[in-house]
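Students often ask why we bother encoding 3D structure as a string. The short answer is that it lets us treat folding as translation between two languages. Here is a chain of 287 residues written in the first language.
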Amino acid sequence: MDARNATRTDAAARRPAPPTGLAASLAVARSGAGALGGRRRLGMLALVGLPVLFQVVVLIWGGGRGSAFANFVWLVDKIYLRAIAPLVLIFVGTAAFGDEWDGGTAPYLLGAPIKRSTIVLGRWSAAVARALVLLLPAILVLYVLCLLPFEGAMANYLGELGAVLLATTLMGLAYGAVFLFLGLALRRSVMVSFIIALVFEGFIGSLPYGFGVLSLGFHARNLVWRLTGHEGFHPPTFGLDVGEPISAAASILFTLLAGVVLFLLLSAWVLRRKQFAGGAGTDGADS
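And here it is in the second language, the structure alphabet:
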């Protein structure tokens, strides 16, 4: 008996300690690497690449008509920030945990000796990274295609390009957290996410400041406008007196606090309350 206990003690001593901190977050992120493979990834790649393909057609067969920075602004504002970016983030955000529930592997993930907050951070960072890997290069290529016919234009608008990429990144961080939370909290999360994107991006985000400030997409566009001064990104006023415009700092703070921090905290709270009958327990690392 003593020999058997000694063997068990030696085996436990040789067992590697569970990862913590950044290592744990990276491990969780890698565990969901297959969530956006196959047809889903190809579909998002096709969606993100449509405006780029359109601009290639304009450049080659249209003789460059419809190019220049104003056209780039229109495509980014109307197509990417209002439609494509929210759609991509819906798919990656809701899939961050949705596939675990659909495939029945959630008990194994939540049974690991890793804090729930660390699991949320790992899956959120992985989802946002996948979205930005698609969105940012597409916007960069679109910038080149729109300004290529004009000598010196690409170098002249580099600051404006940086503002667009910054706003897209912040929007990705915030909407990634929102849709990850919906994927955890709701059974029909994709449908609800589409409704939210339609209402807040297509309607509320286009209203004057008093209403539009509720939209994360509004703050992304307002940030670009405040940093570049380009009227193509100016939030609509519909002829109303809207008072003092919202500053770039206020839009950044709203995006980070109301979007990222709030919904990541809510996601961790929902994940701590998840229960699985007959699977791995939810007690253990539930802080």
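Translate back mentally: Residues 6-16, 277-287 have pLDDT under 50 and may be disordered. Keep this in mind for the problem set.
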